[in-house]
Automatic annotation (TrEMBL), chains A, B:
A Gene Ontology cellular-component term: cytoplasm
Family as reported in the entry's similarity comment: Belongs to the group II decarboxylase family.
Top-rank lineage group of the source organism: Bacteria
Keyword tRNA-binding included in the entry's annotation: no
Protein name: L-2,4-diaminobutyrate decarboxylase
Documented EC number(s): 4.1.1.86
Residue numbers of N6-(pyridoxal phosphate)lysine PTMs: K314
Top class in the EC scheme: lyase
Transmembrane segments: none
Source species of the chain: Thalassoglobus polymorphus
Any one Gene Ontology molecular-function term assigned to this protein's record: pyridoxal phosphate binding
Length: 498, 498
């Protein structure tokens, strides 16, 4: 390659890496986001900026096509930021009450940005000494808040709840089915995974990924509150043991996604201990109740599980993704993988395995995924997490009371946390049958979503199509709930009068 | 819970979510990072800020313990940022020439921060309409740059190369072993995965995770340049077919981590086609050569693979993590998982499966992982990626030439990309045997790393302990290389004179 063209390339790179340009664009970004957050808190914009996929895709394609000279970098940057904001989702709008993804604490995003801009990563301690240390301190601290005994447990952080469940269930598989790591899942007596019938889809997917087979997941009967029935679990395990069926694990939920029901973990732990089965808890959403004096009882017994997961990017209100896996017994921490990688793991420095995170995670290179949580915790203390849980749970209780009080609304359960499933019941004069009511609720949701007035979701509860909300923004208040009721009523009338 | 304490909690939350506080801290962060980047470019700081794990952990613990009043939020924030910078790794220092993690384009970090601060996520289109669209536009565009035919292929983005390889190999397993998704890996004739002998450890781990077993990975012989030998592959597949052994896939490397050797993909594709075997390529590091007219030939033939992966967070110089999986035939895109999740995937909106990313990824909630890449591409055009490849590869060639010219250094291969393995050979007067020379090289590396003068790594090449560099910072220049030589010599003399 001629020196000339390399030199030109070097000049372009110098410009792209210019600290001055970075600073000027960075200031512009922060200023724009400050205004944006303020507008959202005033409910001044749409919640979701709805556009059809093909329309957004075409704009995204066009962005990649245009190229500008370095003279107008700031203008170009501002245009792009504006496009992303205009076409993105506004989780920080108090009328965002949709999926279990939070209006994150804005400060957490700044700490995350510190990691991103300086590209702090992990796998081995050397590559991310501070990222690794922060993560280890948080594992220790959160584990102790949950009630694990200091020094006895281990943990890791990974990119999301699905990956966290997969990692823990892989550990369980390797322990329950000896040699399955090295020799594969080869057993004439097909092994099973026993799970809460409302488990997140990633639990069944884990069985598919791990070579067990999705059909080898046995779903345990739920009680009237959609919690795993411990007696039914006991019967299931008894039968499986009688048939000599290998049991990989029992996977409980705290809580299950659908209505936010918390399994009775103490009872499940009793059953698992009796049968000698690995107990796992998917506490992706609910693990954060450990921070609240009022609500911690919901996960009572979780410290008896062999493994459990908690998503900080759900109910600790930090940006995605920051999922924790905990192993009650730290001896299990290296059962997940058992391998060498000489260029990574320095044989001249034994004892580093415990600080080289890659030994325990599916990721090799991993983001500094806990910078956001570390920053919020260090700035505001543990108190802020209790506040966030208590306030969002209280708002959901208020929603429930309001739903009960109105004859054209039906709550489909009493909320245990910040999840509420309900539906709108139109006046009998319209003569809608059960199926038509489901369809009406679907249409209401879609209309509200596309209008940007509210963002809520839908689900299917025992064949009934319903509305579903999760209060994931602590700034959602009573006025927002009242507005939700009137918006739903207005939308229903518009649909029914067509 | 008493209304009073809820109100107090609400006040603390209001303060934590204050747009004004966000803006003030954000400006302070950007300003600090601008100065930091400038200092690093002047080589004014250490590369790695080395501290023992226990020391860093103790500081990280302490941060979580202290709690301050909201009055001094800015001071507290600045303290924490300072701590993270002082104890972190400086990949943006031009003397960082270590693992395959780049000194990322700083602008990419700003776009990533936009996603983080506003918590843009995906799984379903609704939740991240812009994040989804940007990702899809990039999959299209990069796929076409690589040479895939428009409209015929599919892709996804996931959190890192290990997860990307796992996803692609899961797809291969589901297709190669019918019913393995639903019924598990149950085959009397144990299935195998055939791989490059220098494959990244995640390939063997994938076999362990997927229920095949790590011992079921057959490593194909390498040629004299450490590339998979296509003739040996042919022999391996012929024997396996003769024995009716199910073959999940052939996993080639472009390039393998160790010395950066690119497999002969055209020849491997010929062999795989002849035997009717799924061809996968781990092009985590090398996929980016597609951007360079000079180096694209290295992955010639990759478009014949059934699946391959490319990490934008390696050689497209964006922050971690942003890994692409490509399927040559878009019909394979839903083979990875086959499941329902009614609360996510809206049955009233058929056709959304193609825009609901969660249908194809192990993650359910996923970060807006491509904001950084989208921003850089849209700001600076495709040219910047060609520049980054050409410059870092040219710097590595220069390093190689210098190593050859010096009698006390030995390059252990001619570099094909930006990876160079070499060692220091001390004067014969010291009478060091082969083992002692390996040990000396290890000591040199550790000394340089801990001093913060350079960051490079080590590896083991056919039993020889060596030094290993990857030029992952485009600002690394000839002067840095000359300084590397003198630092190594000085360090060696210090060690040998002890």
């Amino acid at each position: 390659m001629p020196t000339d063209s390399l030199n030109t390339a070097r000049q372009r790179i110098q410009a792209a890496y210019s600290p001055e340009v970075f600073q000027s664009l960075g200031e512009s970004l922060i200023s724009r986001l400050g205004v944006h957050l303020g507008e959202l808190q005033q409910r001044g914009q749409s919640v979701l900026n709805w556009n059809l996929p093909e329309e957004n895709l075409s704009v995204a394609r066009e962005c990649l096509q245009r190229s500008k000279t370095s003279d107008d970098l700031l203008n170009r940057f501002q245009d792009l930021i504006e496009t992303a904001i205009e076409r993105g989702h506004n989780l920080h709008h108090p009328r965002y009450i949709g999926h279990q993804v939070p209006a994150s604490v804005p400060l957490a995003g700044l700490f995350d940005a510190l990691g991103s801009i300086t590209n702090q990563v992990m796998a081995i301690y050397e590559m991310g000494p501070w990222a690794t240390s922060v993560e280890k301190a948080l594992i220790e601290r959160w584990g102790e808040v949950i009630g694990l005994a200091p020094g006895t447990f281990a943990g890791l952080v990974t990119h999301g709840g699905s990956l966290a469940n997969l990692t823990a269930l892989l550990t369980a598989r390797n322990i329950s089915l000896k040699n399955s790591w090295t020799q594969g899942v080869q057993n004439a007596n097909l092994p099973v995974l026993v799970a809460n019938a409302d488990s997140h889809y990633c639990v069944t997917r884990s069985a598919g990924i791990l070579g067990l087979g999705t059909e080898q997941v046995i779903k345990v009967r739920l009680d009237h509150r959609r919690r795993m029935d411990a007696t039914a679990l006991d019967e299931t395990l008894t039968q499986l043991r009688k048939r000599n069926t290998p049991i990989v694990a029992v996977s409980a939920s705290a809580c299950a996604t659908l209505i936010g029901a918390f399994d009775p973990l103490q009872e499940i732990a009793d059953v698992c201990e009796r049968h000698g089965v690995w107990m796992h808890v998917d506490a992706a959403h609910g693990g954060a109740v450990s921070m609240s004096k009022k609500h911690a009882h919901l996960i009572d017994g979780i410290t008896r599980a062999d493994s459990f997961i908690c998503d900080a990017h759900k109910t600790l209100f930090v940006p995605a993704l920051c999922a924790f896996v905990f192993y009650r017994d730290k001896q299990h921490r290296f059962e997940t993988f058992q391998q060498d990688a000489p260029y990574l793991f320095d044989p001249s420095a034994p004892g580093m395995a415990d600080v080289d995170g890659g030994m325990m995670t599916i990721e090799c290179t991993k983001r500094a995924a806990t910078y956001g949580l570390w920053g919020v915790w260090s700035m505001l203390g543990q108190q802020i997490f209790e506040d966030l849980i208590d306030v969002t749970f209280a708002t959901t209780q208020l929603l429930y009371q309001k739903l009960r009080a109105e004859k054209d609304f039906e709550p489909l359960h009493e909320p245990e946390c910040n999840i509420q499933v309900f539906r709108y019941l139109p006046d009998e004069k319209y003569g809608l049958d059960s199926k038509a009511i489901c369809e009406l609720n679907r249409q209401i949701r879609r209309t509200l979503m596309e209008s940007g007035e509210f963002y809520l979701v839908q689900t299917n509860l025992d064949g009934i199509g319903t509305l579903r909300t999760t209060v994931m923004n602590p700034l959602t208040n009573e006025e927002d709930l009242d507005q939700l009721f009137s918006s739903i009523r207005r939308t229903a009338e518009e649909i029914l009068s067509q």
